[in-house]
Amino acid sequence: MSKYKSKWSFLFLSAIAGCVMVLGVSCNQMCGKKEVKDRIMKEAEKTNPFVHAAGTRIVDGNGAPLTLKGCNLGNWLLLEMWMMDVKGIHDQHEYEEILATRFGEAKKDELMELFRANWITERDFEIIRSFGFNVIRLPFYYTLLEDEPFTLKPDAFKWLDQCLAWGEKYGIYVILDMHGVPGGQSVDHTTGRAGQNKLYADQSCRDRAAWLWLQIAERYKDSTIVAAYDFINEPFGDYKTEDHQQGLIEVMDQIYKEVRSVDPHHMVMIPGTFAGIKFYGDPKALGWENVCFQEHYYPGLHGWGEPTYETHKKFINRQLVSLDAYMKEMDTPFLLGEFNVVFRQAGGPSLMRYYYDYLAERNWAGTMWSYKIVYKKGGLGQDNWYMVKNLNDAPFADTRTASLEEIETYYRWLGTMEYAVDTDLQDALTATHPEQLAIFEPYPPIAPPFVDALTGWQATDISNALTGGQRVDSASQMAIYGGGADIYKDTDQFRFVSQPVDGDFELEATVTALEEAHTFAKAGLMIRGGLAPDDALVLVNVFPDSQVTVACREEKGAMISETKQVIREFPIRLKLARNGGVIRAYFAFGDEDWQEAGRYEIPALNGPVQAGMAVLSHDNRFLAKAEFKDIQLRKGAE
Length: 638
Fold this sequence. Notes:
Number of domains: 2
CATH architecture of the largest domain: Alpha-Beta Barrel
Number of helices: 13
Number of strands: 30
């Protein structure tokens, strides 16, 4: 038996035997009978002795809620150059090529083994436990296991085995994370080889990934220290489009089926793309059971806003609140697989504690990036990506120029160096009474608090915008709750409260407030050729900062042109008027005179049109609230 089997292996086998007896089927009769096998697996799932999903919760082998709280062991089994302060080398593939060119293939392999033997050692597991952590996410490059396609290396599982052994000793679960898959799942260096992204279109890459996961599942199907299989890290494709989503679903399904053919019990991670996780739909509809959604978030970093406390507040109160509702809808748990506040000005260790507590309240799992970094300059910094770092300056050996002896000496030093431990983070994560942070703020709703009936108007959520609503105070005053991504480019998504109009008219209203569901939320007046997403339009609107903008789409399917006006303050009066073939847009502040913001002659808007109030959140997970008063639609005006 594998050294990772425990008493649960005996109980599991006993359960299987009991199922067979109950069904009255002998082992010979079972062989080749899929329906019997399926029934046995379903029965076995009722007594799953492993970490697994139970609705929105993660539970242990006894079915008790289990909060997985931990870190990633980055740069151990898949190198990321920045984590070693290496400049000018793109990725692990190039790093190994340099070693092989200089010292030969066999010596390169020896050097990589020496590195792995020292980057993480047993002492690291003791330190990880001291942070109050009980799980690690273990990123690895597929080349760690595979020599040639569909051929395992003789010692393929050496380091995974070692990690699990240390995990078992220190009571730390392990999530096995294939951080770089055959052919690459994105163009990023974190796949082990930048610039590839072949996984989705190349069936041979899919087959190799599925085959490798079959070998992994066969190896660890009885390991109770394995918390989950993380098939594909950050499947971000070309970082520009989401054209690979269907391919991702297909390859995930292929791997899932291979794994489930030998392992019905371990939890499986479903990774999000840049667009999130909703494109998968309900995992159960795909035939996926015992799964956990996973995304990676870095508010204030990588284009996610400024590194401030306010950025994190908005993220928690909007992104995570929305995510919580979606997880409940899907009845599925969640792993925040990578995150880090990093900056002390943004909240630092205290905010990291808040994140972990927030996850724990929902029985979600969290693994920060990352455990360890080595820089040439020793000592802790103020803004930390790590839990531990080298205390003293590193005897850095440049892979391109250093001698073999210098490189070997450097690698050995990695295993014995004195650590600078981020004790501020350690203290914050283990404190009995953590610092109380004022994180909560009223957040945009995900469902309309009012759906009052309309008289004379009709409400439409264009292009499947999040279902909105309205609070009607009088015939001339209402609050509209609208979702949608934008009114922009060649297609729109928003809430439109309108009525049909033919001939000349004036539409006027005052926007007294617009909640900032997003910086680019909009509220305004629109004339539109119809209710299709790409219809011609003229729009005069305001943003949450009270800037006025006028936009038009001259014909169906055309791109929108936009002109920004001034920024003042609410309330802001808006008006649209059609006279003959001319449409004019106006705005005014307070009691000031009208200012003409645009004049358009658009043949597509000469006949019957829809005219009314447009509201959008610019983030279709939420609804923006816009307050309108003095609403007037005068037909035959001007």
